[in-house]
Amino acid sequence: MRALLGQSLRFGVVGLANTAVGLSAIYALMFFFNAGAILANMLGYALGLGVSFVLNQAWTFNSSQRLTQVLPRYILTAGGCYLLNLGVVGVSALYFSANPYLAQIFGVGVYTVCMFFGCRWFVFGSPRVVVHPWLRVFQIRSAR
């Protein structure tokens, strides 16, 4: 439990840095360049993704797995979490007429929770083989 708490706190610190960079870019694009909520969101997340990967691999999850192993999983996880974020931003702003700045904050929250558990279990988690109990019985019987 302590490891989970420490990891989540480190992830939170990395997330705050990433959010500060990404959200600043999002708001700047919307305010100064009149970019739409979805375009600004896409560019802001793209900016912080590389920094987030490096910090999370090295510090949060202390992963020594090869880049070729974790980077594709990180991109896949970030993409899935981003789609959830985009859905929240789009639905909030377009269907519920939420303030687009507030909609971005809702999206950030969904992305953050999804990304932590995706990184913990899928991206940087210890590789392990999970075998369904029925398959174990089959393997034992076939070995006789």
Provide an overview of this structure:
This protein is mostly helical and about 140 residues long. The chain has 5 helices and no strands. The chain has helices at about 1-30, 35-60, 65-95, 100-125, 135-144. The radius of gyration is 19 Å and the shape is elongated. The relative contact order is 0.12.
Residue share in helix: over 70%
The count of helical stretches stands at 5
Counting DSSP E segments of at least 2 residues, the number of strands comes to: 0
The averaged pLDDT comes out at 87
Strand-residue fraction? Answer: under 5%
List the uncertain runs: 137-144
Please give a handful of descriptors for the protein shown:
mainly alpha; disordered C terminus; elongated; 144 residues
What is the structure about, briefly put?
This protein is 83% helix and 0% strand.
